[in-house]
Structure prediction request, 118 residues.
Amino acid sequence: MNRKIVIAGVISAVVALAGIAVFSIMNNAGFNSPKAEIYQNGELIKTVELSENTEFTVTCAEGFNVITVEDGKICVSSADCPDKICVKQGKISGAVPIVCLPHRLEIRVVNGDDDIDA
Prediction:
């Protein structure tokens, strides 16, 4: 029985490390000419170049999110949602999106090159 527990522990550790590696790779995935697409309620409301520093506010019936683009990264710098997970996530420039569930907001970083076919 002890051997089964050890094997299960090793397998769990390997799976956890693989998950961390995949998350790290996705979070640091580079794009050529990156852009950010801002979605609210599943609809694209704005596309911004990450090469241009800017700040703007997205509002909805539930509240607001202040979005900041700086040094090739994007973040939600301020929000009035109760948990502020979107603010705590910090700046992104890779494939892991920022999501604010209370305001139904999603920010995705995408490749800005239209010449590349996935």
Observations:
- Residues 2-27 form the longest helix (26 residues).
- The mean pLDDT is 87.
- Strands lie at 35-40, 43-49, 54-60, 63-70, 73-79, 98-100, 105-110.
